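TL;DR need structure tokens for one chain.
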Amino acid sequence: MTEAKTWFITGCSSGFGRSIAEAALAAGHRVIATARDLRSIAGIECETCRVLTLDVTDPANIREAIAEAGSFDVLVNNAGYGLLGAVEECDDDQIRRSVEMNFLGPLNVIRAALPMLRSQKSGHIINISAAAAISNYPGFGIYGGAKAALEFMSESLRLELAPLGIHVTLVEPGPFRTNFVTRSLEKASQPLADYDGTSGKFGRLIASMNGKQPGDPARAAKAILAITAVESPPLRLVLGKYANDKARRRAADLEKERSAWETIGLPTEFTAAS
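>> reply
TL;DR here they are.
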């Protein structure tokens, strides 16, 4: 059996957070499960599972929760929600809240946990990203932008922490059968008719898929557990056929475009004559 670890997981009231917590407990690990509403996670509290209140948009609460948690081995930044709407359709408060929840929240949780992780010279930070950060959709400009910020911060963080024995992994899930659409997807406050065929169409597509998503959250949780047991975990773990196909197409598209414009972009350096 894999050595038992202590997991600190944000956003455990439902979705991936709940599935990861349940899978970790079933595998014999200890869990510190957190959520904004303690009542939503009271049912999983047990001898090996502590529950804590945590609002990842509240830096003071983050520091308190990390201090109360003590030491742990795996940090899962799962708390977050979607924002559906064209860039122009979302209001200032919606944009601010999305960035606070999906980027600044995980960032502040990591920063609060790093002194402890550095002192023990071990640990694994797992940040739940999104398929929108592989390549984005019309209507997910703000949400995907916040997740992309999380991704590029994580790339740098991985390089900074590798010499200290701390791993960093981004998890990029495709469509999974959680309650993301019904519970965790805010809609733009000022819809505009001009965007009905772009962000509006995408929103209708998401709604039509609800309850039919091919991804199984329980299987996703097992995959995430698996990478915490290996010596060299990946920077990115892409979950499900949809997201893997998307990542493959994205890589090919990037190279195709770069190559097509190489004659314009490449000769922009000083020459020997200059």
